[in-house]
Description:
Elements: H1 3-14, H2 19-28, H3 33-48, H4 61-92, H5 102-138, H6 146-176, H7 181-216
Amino acid sequence: MSNSLQEFLSAAKTQGASDESVVALLRGRGWPEDDVYRALANHYEKHSGVRVPEYKRSGSAKDAFLYLLSFSMLATWTIGLGSVMFTLIDRWIRDPLSPANNYYSSGYYQMANSLACMIVAFPLYLLTTRYILREVRLHPEKLESPVRKWLTYIALLIAAGVVVGDLIAFLTYFLRGELTGRFVAKTSVVLAIAGGVFWYYLGSLQKSADATRTANE
């Protein structure tokens, strides 16, 4: 920092000049705005004995990584859960028009793949979510992270789209008179999983908004 800049700023403040006038005057002489505000910070630190706090951005690459990992694991284990339920429904409610060995030829392979997805993705989702919640408790400003809000709303949009699509499909088959027990069971599974995800993350956003409102009050 230039000593001449710091001396001028101290002299101007001693004469009662406002910060705005000092900044405008120095910028008119070609000084960069960042240097002027840095000099102001040094001036107030020197006279108050307290350092100017540094702002920590709530949105970062780390936040983006954690939320993307969390949502990707959420998608993996929920799709795996839905696939497991679909396979069990196909086994419990047999289709009389399909071959008798249709389930045994592909159902077990599908079940193994879906269970593997759930076994791997669900614990990772829980661990990632737990870490995110711990970070939020330690740094409440992360509740206002734009990364968190954007990715959460994208997850809500996807979940809402699945719910709406599921209801449209159900109503379409109902109006056609083509509802079957298997179809009703599968649409119920999709509605329960997607609806649960939607309400969970909508509730988390509402809790964050309430916490922010309480802190401001």
